[in-house]
FAD/FMN-containing dehydrogenase (Streptomyces wuyuanensis), 747 residues
Amino acid sequence: MADYGHELLFGTFLTPQNRDPAAVVDLAVLSERSGLDLVTFQDHPYQSGFLDTWTLLSWVAARTERVRLSGNVINLPLRPPAVLARAAASLDLLSGGRVELGLGAGAFWDAIEAMGGRRLTASEAVGALDEAIDVIRGVWDAGERAPLRVRGDFHRVDGAKRGPAPAHPVPIWVGAYKPRMLRLTGRKADGWLPTLNFLKDPDLRRGNAIIDEEAQRTGRDPRAIRRLLNIMHGPGQDQGPLQGPPERWAERLLPFALEHGVGTFVLGTDDPRAIAAFGEVVAPALREAVIEERRGTSADASRPAVGPSAGAGADPLPVSLRARAVRPGDSAYEKVRSTYLWPGSPGLVLRPGTPREVSEALVFARGQGVPIAVRSGGHGLSGRATNDGGIVISLGALDRVEVIDRQRRLVRVGAGARWGDVAAALAPHGLAISSGDYGDVGVGGLATTAGVGLLARSYGLTIDRVKGADAVLADGRIVRADAEHHPDLFWALRGAGGNMAVVTSLDIEAAEVGDVVFGTFLHAPADLDGFLRRWGRTAEDAPRELTSFLSVARRQGRYVAQTSAVWAGTDVDGASAALQPFLGLAPVLHQRAELVPYAAVVAPAHNDHHGRGPIHSRSVLVRHLDGPTTSVVARLFDDRAIAHLQIRSVGGAVGDTPAAATAYAHRFQNFSLNAVVREGREEQADGLWDGLGEGLYLSFDTRTGPHVLSRAFPPATLRRLRDVKAVYDPGNAFRNNFPIPPADRAS
């Protein structure tokens, strides 16, 4: 048996006949009105009796509002993949994200050749499709700056500009029957789209097995591949399971969902009565039957409710969460499965839209016995906002930014917002919040850890300005935490929030900051050790108005060091005097300083995150960039143990807050260092790195365990955190972030 847990979808497979063009469009509109999810058309460009499928898809997109659209399947030999990619992305943008892409390797080669296409053998056609998928995905990858180059045997793209990106992650479905095509599906496709009438009885099971084996061999989750099935119905068709009245069809289709993993049923017919019945009678009945069967399955403790046997209707997933839940195989899965750097394969992503729904999501997730990750919406290095096989609670919909008291400069920010959007929303009010150095960072993660931003020396850490928070506790209770309500929790949320609760919003005191002076310097230091010491003295001696960050990398045997510095205000003369000393630190390759809105420094990005690759990062906090520190860093670079280094100023106003006031207790250090360790060099790097400094910033260290925990929190702070943990999360539900074990209250 194979139930991949996909939400059931239903669609139609219409004939694009041109004798009555309006009739086929009317059938597409009827499909939508009948509640179906998908409309598809066969694509045979050599058929003079057919409309052009892509033109028809575009016309139908304009006539419909909700239904998804696809070729079934697009004839690749007559549609160049680079052009097809742009056409699909364009229609997806125009239709609001309603395009799916079914591809075929080609058939009817005499007709294809007659239309100017190249005749291919069966083996060549598979190879051409393989290359075409690379071309299509490469065109869609608009975030990649390098020109697209695919130099295949059948498709060559040499330096093409990428884009546009589709409005949503367009899935690629492959019509496949034979082993090579099935393996290609398992390796690269998002869906398998065969026609039942062309399959023998065991072929679905055999096809699934080949796809699953290839997916696992290449490191993919088989659940990420949706299983679709065309079922033909009408005069002259072998109606298979669609015999008798439509009321009986659901009963006969049920085994295809539960035993063969079919998540999308596509009815091949031009009969309006059959279309209406499929949407209004069959689809609701089959969905309900699958819910009932999955409910019984999930009650078996040996089979988790999240995973291959779970589905959108698997009890007890609250109704309020079902519409936005995402599972492997859903069209949105690729967009939500991973974080900025870390790839993930969660069994379920829940996207609540209110604190009450966050509570429901958390209670549900805790009952499943799988890892739980909470994602606040954006960028992040640690990889703790995704997992494999567990549940991700994504707070991206809780993104409201509201100035609730301008006189007190009090701002309420949803935990799922991104800091670039916060800066843009506050700019018209002449306000700003110190918040990292990149606008794509999520509010919740940063504002519950510390928040080392480009205004830190002037206004302190982000947590220093937090005046209250709304949070969901491990047992589902929604509470307010501030100086008067749950003050112990409020203390812990400011420095270790991810271990205590799910924060849904924060009240933060903003600063009166509009325009700032933003300076950047690109140096080429020959002596990294000496450069770092000079840079540290310069940054530390600067007035509090200036906060400086430094990034260092080694390229082609040369060091490149970039300084980013913000002067918090419009005093251009003061800023110039503070920035001038940086020019003498090493040869300058580039320099720039300008008066800009703070919102331009941390501009909104809204990047899609696809897990570029896991990294191993290390953090340390130091009082000064003195010889013992800089010599170790230089040695790690020389030994090729680290690939990148960032240094952030955390002196000035950061030290104004007493160490015991928040769970982030590191208030005497002036610099926060984090480094990316090269693969395979972790042990070598740690041997030197762990001898540096006093403390670390936990969001920049990918390690866990008692040793790292003791460096993140001084002993007194850690004891207090464990006591708070025992009160608010005694069962240690929030243990997949940076684990803090609750105190044993019996001892």
